[in-house]
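hey so i finally got around to running the thing on that chain from the lab meeting. sorry it took forever, my laptop kept dying and i had to restart like 3 times. anyway pasting the input first so we r on the same page abt which one it is
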Amino acid sequence: MITSKQLEQILNLVNQLKKQANVTEPSTEQLRRQAEKFAFKTEFGNYNFVSTVKNRSANLTVYVGSEDVVQKDLNSRQKDIIKNLPKTLESLSSYLKKAPFIYSVNSMGDNPYFVPQCHLF
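ok and heres what got predicted. didnt touch it at all, straight out
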């Protein structure tokens, strides 16, 4: 079971990420120019991006949070992830301080009722 202290640690990692020296926040135009280097232009002038990762690894995915969010039926690998959470959080914290990240805020959808802001790293 995840503790409230561990949940707080995760929240702090996420909240501090944007302020770190290894995180850049390019303009939309800078981001577009950088992304276009890795795209294929279609016959219609659009850009197509291909990723080698096609889906998440469900067997290695664990939802952590309140009782409303946490997964109930975990496989043995997921149980190990929870059991080793303190070490995983320590490794994650170290990684987040070193790896280069790009931060971008975008709107999802375009309607008068609900347009959530997505914060992407």
